[in-house]
Amino acid sequence: MKVSLFITCLADLFYSNVGRATVELLEKVGCKVHFPESQTCCGQPAFNSGYHKETIEVAKHMIRTLEDSEYVVSPSGSCIAMLREYVHLFHGNENWQKRAAELANKSYELTQFLVEVVKVESLNACLREKATYHKSCHMTRLLGVKAAPLKLLSQVEGLEMLPLPNSENCCGFGGTFSVKMGQISEQMVDEKIKDIETTGANLLIGSDCGCLMNIAGRIKRQGKSLKVMHIAEVLNSEVN
Fold first, then answer.
1. What one-character-per-residue DSSP string does 71-138 give?
2. What Cα–Cα distance (Å) separates residue 124 from each residue in 17, 19, 154?
């Protein structure tokens, strides 16, 4: 099957290793990966800030860019959730709403695609760590992807997964929320880090670069040694 990689802004600018791991994973399970070079931001920052008219122009561009794709896969549940939001964005415009729905129906977060479409049983990954998993709000609440990441992590040889207390709590990122409400965001991420530390894990795994950037940044400023990895990197790990 042919997959178009939607890399997202954060992976493109800050987490190139996540993009590489995503491509290698997709190729490992037999996918032919295509990268549409005209892709841009999904429009989520503008949308969440209330600039819906401006977001419509971004959405039209992304629909045109990905329209001929067989599948669209991204290492971000948050951004895939935004692609699916296009259907509501074009309410009242039958033509664009239909095109948006077609895009939504073939767009998947990475672990969701591996479990639901490819039906992966094992990726032959190996990582000898004690880890815990952070559930991102958009991926779980908006996209509804909860079980797929944990199912794949359970197959990683040597990886001991520890339950995270208050796992449903937001890390405080929330896109523009962390900028507009910085003090509140800081308190939220501090609480998240305390919960992570109670698990005894030395590695935090997540599926959204925004959350990981927020948590990892705070960990660094606090001078802590806790490691942070995107799930694509973990699933692409080999014997160490």
1. EEEES-HHHHHHHHHHHHHTTT-HHHHHHHHHHHHTEEEHHHIIIIIS--S----EEEEEEEEEPPHI
2. 19, 19, 11
Q: Hey, what amino acid is at 190?
A: D
Tell me how far apart the alpha carbons of residues 64 and 44 are, in angstroms, rounded to a whole number. 17
Give dist(CA 75, CA 63) in Å, integer: 18
> Which residue bears the tokens 């000898």?
128
Tell me if the pTM is above 0.85: yes
Residue linked to tokens 């290492």: 75
Left, alpha or beta for 26 (phi > 0: left; psi -120 to 50: alpha)? alpha
State residue 91's pLDDT score: 93
Q: How far is CA 194 from the centre of its chain?
A: 23
Domains of the chain: 2-116 (no CATH), 121-235 (3.40.50.11810)
pLDDT-based confidence at residue 240 (cuts at 50, 70, 90): low
Reported as type and span, the H/E element at residue 152 is helix 147-153
**Eight-state DSSP code of residue 174:** T
